[in-house]
């Protein structure tokens, strides 16, 4: 408990430490009436996963709170920093993304059994909204939300499920899932246009969530390059934390003629990117497509684009709704239409880039308008391919 | 087909060094009678220190810093186990936890917690002549650590079984009291072996952050240290045995990956999970077949107490 309180004190870096010594029952929000507290519990991936958790933290800390976490505490961020983190689509969104003046309170989870106490702790500390990042927090969010009907929760990547696995609705929990297949569809279409030989896919653990990426990706490749879709190689590394295994998989695929590879494999994916980077250094014409966040900085020149999952935007909009008083429970699915998923800026040049981007935009429009339904599993994929 | 085989060998050689060094480290410590399950933590310290140091100094020097970090952690293990005769398994596990949390903490405090910034990777040596020959080509283009990992086990094996120092190390691991009556200092020898074990484990960790990847990534070494300990047991506490076992694990891993993408139909018949467990299941089988032939040093895990009889 002491350790956990210390984490909170460290994470908040604000006057919260003082509150702890006073009356334990007085919520700190009362001590600081100016700022409303929004809590966030990471999953075991934690701060620094360069994708999922970091994206959620960006939405809360940099965008909603206008703060930056550095050296164990917060400092106010400049307007330029916020601007630099926005893609053109996000910068032109209405209403614009501006700091909302809330105080972030972040607790990282080191193990599965931390989730529930961490959520409970943030509620005790007066967080009006608490974000649970990742499907692994589903049970914990449900339990804590039932015990604290006045507090509000945002669960990322999973609906609340009952004992038999059926989605249920709690009045104080908003859940957000992403239509990853739609973003994967777009990067698949791009891969089909860029590839000269063979297209590859690397997944982490073989779970339905990652299968969604694969199905969308395959459909995207099929829509622009049916021949490449037939030869497509898909492999799973079996983990999300093993860079070395990811690198081996990347090398294996390239040895089999793959020249564009999409990875959805967490830290293993960093190994895939590394393998492609090294192959490029040897003069091979190969590309990799990143996932979740824009991963171009990891290997400039090798990362074609990234399939970004806008967890940050989902968190930010929940905080905005909280301030506006319109945050209600319920399930939300975010796809291309809602800017829930999308493509990072394509920084690399390749022959026919302009035509390729125009084609992608046309495909995107068809998905947004609902004319094109992107498959999210193997059965839907088979039906998709059967279409003319 | 040939290119697939080539890729298999290449990726094995790229992956194996970290495991080989760590397994050798485990052998060195345990041969002297000190259980070392802290290999994972020492690798983590080595990987972290090597990457951080390489930001400021040339990468080969960074690797040396990684070794030093592994040795520093090992020295703590030695102090607890030799000076204070603490439980060696507990001390090792505690070090793993310290390294796990310490690495994360320092990473967060010094950089964005996203891992260290990229460093210059260790130079990859292209062997002239060899890089044109099909198949043998796979032996070319690795960092110096790969070539070191291919030679070191033989040197270590020779030193352990054919030199006076090696005999002394084995003696304190088998019957320290007897070694002491001949005038050997049991604590000094054990300290030397434990610190040496840290150097090797640190080198293994450094291989991950300077050769496999070009920075420290916050999951490193992701269980490789425990695999190294398994390789040591599988290799019956001998350097060459541990080397063979580590190479076997690395090859098994590469084979699994190669099979999955070469024969997609196979993955539909045999579940991925089964392929994933294959190297470990084989290890269990081999260990079971070996039976109780007492390969472990007799005094392993027993603190040396001169007063005890």
Structural features, described:
The complex is a heterodimer of chains A (388) and B (309). Chain A contains 16 helices and 16 strands. Chain A has 388 residues and is of the alpha/beta class. Chain A has a six-stranded parallel β-sheet, with helices on both faces. Chain A has a six-stranded mixed β-sheet with strand order 11-10-12-13-14-16, with helices on both faces. In chain A, β7 and β8 (167-168) form a beta hairpin. The longest helix of chain A is centred in the middle third of the chain and has 17 residues, at 208-224. Chain B is mainly alpha-helical. A two-stranded antiparallel sheet of chain B has the order 1-2. Chain B has one domain (2-123, 134-290): ABC transporter involved in vitamin B12 uptake, BtuC (Orthogonal Bundle), CATH 1.10.3470. Helix content of chain B is 70%, strand content 1%. Chain B is globular, with a radius of gyration of 20 Å.
Task: Give me the secondary-structure topology.
The complex is a heterodimer of chains A (388) and B (309).
Chain A: H1 2-12, H2 16-21, H3 28-31, E1 36-41, H4 52-64, E2 67-70, E3 73-76, H5 79-84, H6 88-91, E4 102-107, H7 115-124, E5 129-132, H8 138-147, E6 152-156, E7 160-161, E8 167-168, E9 173-178, H9 180-194, E10 198-203, H10 208-224, H11 226-231, E11 233-236, H12 243-255, E12 258-264, H13 266-281, E13 287-292, E14 303-309, H14 311-324, E15 330-334, E16 341-343, H15 353-368, H16 378-386
Helix pairs in contact in A: 4-14, 7-8, 9-10, 9-15, 10-16, 12-13
Chain B: H1 2-31, H2 39-54, H3 59-83, H4 88-110, E1 124-125, E2 142-143, H5 144-162, H6 164-174, H7 176-181, H8 186-212, H9 224-234, H10 239-262, H11 264-269, H12 272-290
Antiparallel strand pairs in B: 1-2
Helix pairs in contact in B: 1-5, 1-8, 1-9, 1-10, 2-3, 2-4, 2-8, 2-9, 3-4, 3-8, 5-6, 5-10, 9-10, 10-12
């Amino acid at each position: 408990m002491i350790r956990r309180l210390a984490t909170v004190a460290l994470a908040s870096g604000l006057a919260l430490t003082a509150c702890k010594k006073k009356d334990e029952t007085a919520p700190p929000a009362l001590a600081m009436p100016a700022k409303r507290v929004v809590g966030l519990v990471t999953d075991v991936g934690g701060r620094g996963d360069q994708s999922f958790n970091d994206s959620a933290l960006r939405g809360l800390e940099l965008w909603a709170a206008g703060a930056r976490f550095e050296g164990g505490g917060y400092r106010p961020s400049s307007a330029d920093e916020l601007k630099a983190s926005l893609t053109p689509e996000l910068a032109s969104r209405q209403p614009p993304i501006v700091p909302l003046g809330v105080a972030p309170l972040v607790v990282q989870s080191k193990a599965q059994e931390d989730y529930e106490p961490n959520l409970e702790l943030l509620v005790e500390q007066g967080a009006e909204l608490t974000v649970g990042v990742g499907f692994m927090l589903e049970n914990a969010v449900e339990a804590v939300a039932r015990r604290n009907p006045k507090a509000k929760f945002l669960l990322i990547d999973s609906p609340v499920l009952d004992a038999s696995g059926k989605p249920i609705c709690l009045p104080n929990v908003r859940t957000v899932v992403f239509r990853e297949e739609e973003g994967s569809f777009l990067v698949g279409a791009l891969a089909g246009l860029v590839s000269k030989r063979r297209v590859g896919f690397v997944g982490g653990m073989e779970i339905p969530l990652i299968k969604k990426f694969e199905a969308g990706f395959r459909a995207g490749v099929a829509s622009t390059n049916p021949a490449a879709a037939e030869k497509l190689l898909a492999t799973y590394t079996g983990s999300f934390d093993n860079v070395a295994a990811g690198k081996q998989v990347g090398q294996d695929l390239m040895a089999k003629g793959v020249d564009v590879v999409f990875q959805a494999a967490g830290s293993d994916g960093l190994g895939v990117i590394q393998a492609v980077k090294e192959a490029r250094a040897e003069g091979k014409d190969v590309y990799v497509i990143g996932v979740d966040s824009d991963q171009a900085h990891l290997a400039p020149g090798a990362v074609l684009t990234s399939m970004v999952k806008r967890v940050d935007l989902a968190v930010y909009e929940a905080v905005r709704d909280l301030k506006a008083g319109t945050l209600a429970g319920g399930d939300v699915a975010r796809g291309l239409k809602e800017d829930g998923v999308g493509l990072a800026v394509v920084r690399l040049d390749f022959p026919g880039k302009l035509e390729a981007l125009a084609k992608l935009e046309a495909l995107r429009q068809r998905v947004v308008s609902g004319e094109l339904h992107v498959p999210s599993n193997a059965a839907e994929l088979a039906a998709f391919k059967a279409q003319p | 087909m040939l290119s697939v085989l080539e890729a298999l060998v290449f990726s094995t050689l790229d992956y194996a060094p970290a495991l080989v060094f760590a397994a050798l480290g485990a052998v060195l410590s345990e041969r002297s009678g000190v259980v070392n399950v802290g290999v994972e933590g020492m690798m983590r310290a080595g990987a972290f220190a090597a990457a951080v140091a390489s930001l400021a100094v040339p990468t080969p020097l960074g690797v040396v810093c990684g070794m030093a970090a592994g040795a520093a952690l090992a020295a703590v293990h030695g102090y607890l186990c030799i000076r204070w005769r603490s439980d060696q398994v507990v001390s090792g596990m505690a070090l793993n936890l310290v390294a796990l949390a310490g690495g994360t903490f320092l990473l967060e405090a010094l950089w964005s917690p996203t891992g260290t910034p990229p460093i210059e990777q260790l130079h990859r040596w292209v062997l002239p002549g060899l890089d044109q020959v099909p198949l043998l080509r796979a032996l070319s283009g690795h960092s110096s650590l790969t070539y070191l990992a291919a030679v070191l086990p033989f040197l270590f094996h020779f030193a352990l079984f054919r030199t006076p120092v090696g005999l002394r190390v084995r003696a304190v691991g088998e019957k320290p009291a007897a070694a002491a009556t001949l005038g050997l200092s049991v604590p000094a020898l054990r300290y030397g072996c434990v610190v040496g074990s840290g150097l090797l484990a640190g080198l293994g960790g450094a291989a991950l952050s300077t050769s496999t990847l070009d920075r420290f990534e916050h999951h490193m070494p992701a269980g490789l240290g425990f695999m190294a300990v398994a390789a040591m047991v599988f290799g019956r506490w001998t350097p060459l045995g541990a080397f063979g076992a580590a190479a076997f694990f690395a090859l098994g891993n590469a084979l699994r990956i190669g099979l999955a993408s070469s024969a997609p139909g196979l993955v539909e018949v045999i579940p991925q999970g089964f392929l994933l467990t294959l190297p470990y299941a084989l290890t269990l089988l081999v260990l079971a077949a070996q039976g109780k032939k007492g390969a472990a040093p007799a005094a392993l895990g027993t603190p040396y107490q001169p007063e005890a009889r």
